[in-house]
Write a structure and sequence with these properties.
single chain; alpha+beta; two-stranded antiparallel ribbon; Alpha-Beta Plaits; 2 domains; seven-stranded mixed sheet
């Protein structure tokens, strides 16, 4: 298969590639049969921005294979085995049920970091997910989902969730990130009785945790009154809950009282919550 030169590559439209990431970086050319076969062979070696991006690239690749009358038997078998392995790994760890504390994080200013790093952004995300997993696992948490710049974990103990969040906000500023990027995550925590599926949670409590995360700032930990009430009696020395008032969160029927977690090593002052 002839290698694409820079000029030939630049003249191809976006639809000639299986994957076009958020920075415009184009990978896995599929404009002819030879490149489709090459993309089928290389697909499992590519790191995508998210599971959604992987799914889109997979579908484009399969459509191209059909167009060029290529039967991707090995590719499909490999993808099925990969999916079975993924489900088997998830099945080993049963997500907690009943009264569960949900912790969600995302990166403040992620769009600017994407523009700064370009194709190195997935490497930063991999390193961030690894750091978040370490903190969650050390406090007995269960990873629920990691996608794009978001991370979602569940805890049987509300205090464990708060401990994990504090560990995250202490650890991340100490790291050196790809491209010397400045990475600050906001963290939202809410306790309730979410409805569980085999691999995830659904319902208003999940939505509440997501909205709480969204109103915070990088470096900040914001928790609901449910979490604060559940953990305040067992909070370790030096941990305090600073009232932020009651707020109407989008998609949540009743106002929710919110608190900022304060502890040694954490930033204390932030702008008003991003309500609106």
């Amino acid at each position: 298969m002839a290698r694409l030169g820079p000029t030939e590559r630049s003249n191809l439209p976006d639809r000639a590639f299986a994957d076009v990431d958020s920075t415009g970086h184009r990978r896995l050319p599929i404009h002819d049969a030879a490149h489709v076969r090459n993309a089928l062979a290389r697909f499992s070696q590519v790191t995508f921005e998210s599971e959604e991006a992987r799914d889109r690239a997979r579908q484009r690749l399969l459509n191209a294979a059909k167009r060029f009358k290529i039967v991707p038997v090995g590719f499909i078998a490999g993808q099925l085995q990969s999916e079975r392995d993924h489900l088997a790994r998830r099945a080993v760890t049963t997500l907690p049920s009943g009264f569960v504390t949900l912790m969600m994080t995302d990166i403040e200013g992620s769009t600017a970091i994407v523009q700064q790093l370009g194709p190195d952004f997935p490497r930063l995300i991999d390193e961030l997910w690894s750091a978040l997993r370490d903190c969650a696992n050390a406090s007995g948490g269960h990873e629920v989902e990691a996608r794009a710049d978001e991370f979602f974990a569940a805890f049987e103990s509300p205090r464990d969730a708060v401990d994990a969040a504090i560990a995250v906000q202490r650890a991340l500023p100490e790291r050196v990130w790809p491209g010397a990027a400045e990475v600050r995550v906001r963290i939202g925590i809410h306790s309730g009785y979410p409805t569980s599926t085999p691999t995830n949670y659904v319902g208003i409590d999940v939505n509440t945790a997501s909205r709480i995360c969204a109103v915070g700032h990088g470096g900040q930990i914001v928790v609901s009154t449910n979490t604060r009430e559940a953990v305040k009696a067992s909070a370790p020395d030096g941990v305090r809950f600073i009232t932020l008032g009651s707020h109407q969160l989008r998609g949540v029927a009743a106002p929710v009282a919110l608190y900022q977690v304060g502890a040694k090593g954490l930033r204390g002052r932030f702008p008003p919550l991003r309500i609106g």
